[in-house]
Amino acid sequence: MHVTIAYVIAAALFGLGVYGVVRRRNAILALMAVELMLNAVNLVLVTADVSLRSALRGVPGEAWANPSSQPGSGGVFALFVIVLAAAEVGVGLAIILQFYRMRGAVALDEVPLDQERVSE
């Protein structure tokens, strides 16, 4: 498989994620679009790791160029992005749930960003 195919798929996924964040009114769907963008980044990280390892396989003498001496760094970065995405989903869903309890809806258009807090 050509590396270009994976990059084009990742760009399409990232574009769909950006479109979902910009156009969606529902907060949960916006979080799903952010997850789609993070998965596109994971695809780019793993693809770049595989393609660079295959390109550096013939370079002698340097420790960073020897693919067998280091674990897959793209996969490690992708794992960190997955952990970050899990934390983002947990915090994001907690915020959305609290907002739903307060307002009764999760529409992003109805979120008052400039309203001051009213003390009771």
List the helices and strands and how they pair.
Layout: H1 3-23, H2 27-55, H3 73-103
Helix pairs in contact: 1-2, 2-3
Brief account:
The chain is mostly helical. It has helices at residues 3-23, 27-55, 73-103.
- The count of β-strands is 0
Total of domains: 1
- Tell me about the largest β-sheet: none
Query: Rg, please?
Result: 20 Å
Shape: elongated
Main location: membrane
GO cellular component, one term: NADH dehydrogenase complex
Catalytic activity: a quinone + NADH + 5 H(+)(in) = a quinol + NAD(+) + 4 H(+)(out)
InterPro entries: NADH_UbQ_OxRdtase_chain4L/K, NUOK/Mnh_C1-like
Describe this protein's structure:
By secondary structure, the chain is mainly alpha-helical. The protein has one domain (3-109): Helix Hairpins, CATH 1.10.287. It contains three helices and no strands. It has helices at 3-23, 27-55, 73-103. The mean pLDDT is 81.
Output the keywords:
mainly alpha, 120 residues, NADH_UbQ_OxRdtase_chain4L/K, Helix Hairpins
